[in-house]
Amino acid sequence: MRFVPCGENIIVQLEPIEEKKIGSIYLPDKHSEMCRVGKIMSIGPKVTTYFPGQEVVIGYWAGVAVEAPALGLFGERIRVLRESEILVIIERD
Length: 93
What we know:
mainly beta; 10 Kd Chaperonin, Protein Cpn10, Chain O; 6-stranded antiparallel β-sheet
C-alpha cells in the first residue's frame, strides 16, 4: 500500500509525542503541543520547495490525520497537508 499525494499536497510522518507518566496520569511534553516534527514521505507533482526525506515542523492542527492500519500506523502519525502549512525545514549538521 502506498499513498500518492495529488497537486500541492505533502504526506508527513510525525514523530511520536513524548509522554510522561505520574501515577496513572499521562502528561504530554509541553513543547510538542504547539508544533510537531516529522519527515516528508512523499510529495505531489506541483510541490517545488520540498522533497522526500526532509525533516520539517508543522503546526499542531495542520493537515488531515490519516490512519494506515495496513502499514501498521495507527493514531495521528501521518498527516496530509498543503505545501503552505509547513513552518520550518530542519537542517542537521
